[in-house]
Amino acid sequence: MPPRQPRRRSYDQYCALARTLDAVGDRWTLLIIRELLAGPRRYTDLHADLPGVSTDVLATRLKDMEAQGLATRRKLPPPGAATVYALTPRGAELLPVLTALAEWGTPDLAERRATDALRAHWFALPLRRRLPATEVPAVVDVALDEGVFHVRLGGEGPAYGDGPAETPAARLVLDADTCHELCEGALSVEQGVKAGRIEVLGDGPVAAALRGE
Q: What is the pTM assigned to this prediction?
């Protein structure tokens, strides 16, 4: 007889919010979803971009997410042949939830603590809402001293990705403090360009729109 699986903790409330927290309320779960919104990730990549999480907790949370129907695990075909985790459509529906939470928490980034880790792509979710809309879907690279990531403005595909895109429509070059001001809405891209704090690279209509031309 197989061992009995322990029952996951639940608020035991017939409430949509309580059910949501039953699924994603454990510590680290929402941050794992944040990483998977960038597309399929290997376990080692997730562990590297979630400083502070133990291997046991990460493995447990991923198993829980699979059981909840939020994530799947699959093996890439050769030559990759690596096992990756990816969000299910149900898990991907959490994008606006995480975006709203990130926007709500952005004012608390005013002062970076000495103990704070930083990955450039952690700015992606709040930044996407602050970039001006484009007439056609576009991918924009964002280059900080801490690294490069890209965000998708409209269209289908992951909301953002770590590293540069293959064919970005434009590239923003700025520092982390300026990026925080953009995320908070205290500065627009056009204002940052005029102040010499943001450089927009690219010759197409998307780059021109970002520059306010």
A: 0.90
Residue 79's region, left for phi above 0, alpha for psi from -120 to 50, else beta, is alpha
Query: Which residue is associated with the tokens 């994008």?
Result: 95
CA pair distance 101, 107, nearest whole angstrom: 11
Q: How far apart are CA 43 and CA 26, in angstroms?
A: 19
**Residue in the block written with tokens 């792509």:** 121
For residue 132, say if its preceding peptide bond is cis, omega within 30 degrees of 0.
Answer: no
CB atoms within 10 A of CB 105: 11
Digit-by-digit pLDDT tens for the chain (213 residues) are 444 445 567 899 999 999 999 999 999 999 999 999 999 999 999 999 999 999 999 999 999 999 999 999 999 888 777 999 999 999 999 999 999 999 999 999 888 899 999 999 999 999 999 998 788 899 999 999 999 999 999 888 899 999 999 999 999 999 999 999 999 999 999 999 999 999 999 999 999 999 988
